[in-house]
Amino acid sequence: MAKSVSMKEMLPSLPDEKIDMLAATSVLQQQATEIRNQRPNWQPYLQSQMISQDDFDFINAYDNADSAGRSKILAENRTQAAKTFPSLLEHVSKDQTIQYILVLIDDMLQEDRSRVEIFAEYCAKKREPVCGQFLNLLNGSDGFIVNMSARIIAKIACWNPSANLLDSSDLHFYLNWLNEQLKLNGEYMQSVGRCLQVVLRHDEYRLAFIKVEGPSTLLKVLASRQVNFQIQYQLIFCLWLLTFNPKFAQKMNKLGVIPILADILSDSVKEKVTRIILAVFRNLIEKPEEPNIAKEHCIAMVQSKVLKQLSILEQRKFDDEDIVEDVQFLNEKLQASVQDLSSFDEYATEVKCGRLEWSPVHRSAQFWRENAARLNERNYELLRCLVHLLDTSKDALVLSVASFDVGEYVRHYPRGKHVIEQLGGKQLVMQLLSHEDPNVRYEALLAVQKLMVHNWEYLGRQLEKEQGSTTTTAKSAAGVLAGKTAM
Q1: 3-state DSSP call for residue 462?
Q2: Which of 50, 65, 326, 387 is most exposed by smallest CB count within 10 Å?
Q3: pLDDT tens, 381-396?
Q4: Mean pLDDT of the chain
Q5: 33-72 exposure pattern, b = at least 16 Cβ within 10 A, e = fewer
Q6: Distance CA 35, CA 55 (A)
Q7: Above pLDDT 90, what percent of the chain?
């Protein structure tokens, strides 16, 4: 049996040979196989003056050569190759021919990634963007053309040894396009995932993908559970690549990555999906620079029932050494975190994960007496999380628990009502009074009552002050009057 590819070995050399080996045949690849057999007749394009004699001579010779012949032609005609391929894409209008040209270019690069330099050198001399023609094709309507163009852009952007070949505006456009394709979840989803698997090995590209909110899209697609295991694997692979940016690894669980991946892990029957999830979890512990963030991630994994899954995985036999090592590593880290787990740590992690349930801390009066003020820490971070859940969650249990927690915070923290109002929580709780779920309505009603009680107490104190002031004034007036009478 062939030895499995180590995850740790994959990142430096990452792309495409490894990715193509791991991935099932995509729709794009299937179509490309058919298109290779539909060789165009280049003569009419020359006769109609759509292409130049030089372009015709090059493409006709290249198209009719075998692999060795093509290598020789490229070696001897680098400049002409760099001129001809973009020129054909610009001047040919027939979709079928454009598809064929793109397949030729992709095959050329796939055979030898150093051929990216053919385009890079020529465009540098001309001071033109190397991916310009391919980026323009992303605006088209033919699914094969736009997705093959995206695949070629990924290779050009990442395979040039001297520099990254996309400027900031082109990079933003390209990554935003990929992000929108993820949202569509169409037939070329696997090809979109593969492009991201290539570009996200570069930290500069990771940062740009984060700016277009790509990680949130990845997680929404994964949370929907509407993709097959191959696409699941590819998208989680992209998350794994993102965890190699330490600053982003610290923030990832604010997007809910741990509970989403924990759910997929519990249902996973494919070893490579299990392997990549464990690799993400390991990085979420190892990569953050702040120890308390790593601790929070451990607690979030415990709360998402990852320990249970690890115990199940320990009973299985794996040929992949990475899985065995990662299961052992995660078990040790999570067990250690359970030993130091305080009730507030547990509560804070639950809130940040966004998966509220009726765990004991919520109903504990002692917990709220001791910890209500701690919800103000880090500029009201936990309260903002609760308010965000009240605003965005569709889960009745989450809304019920969040409403209850807001009420308890107000009850146990003197200025709680004012803080909740400032954060917009009061209005959100009041909106839940008309929620379709009776439990949500009940908890919202209790929370509103607690908010109003503070009003009444304040009003009562004001009335007492006013009554006291009136009584004092009356007594003083009576004393003055009595004194005048005595005189």
Answers
A1: helix
A2: 65
A3: 999 999 999 999 999 9
A4: 86
A5: eebeeeebebeebbeeebbeeebbebbeebeeeeeeebee
A6: 21
A7: 65
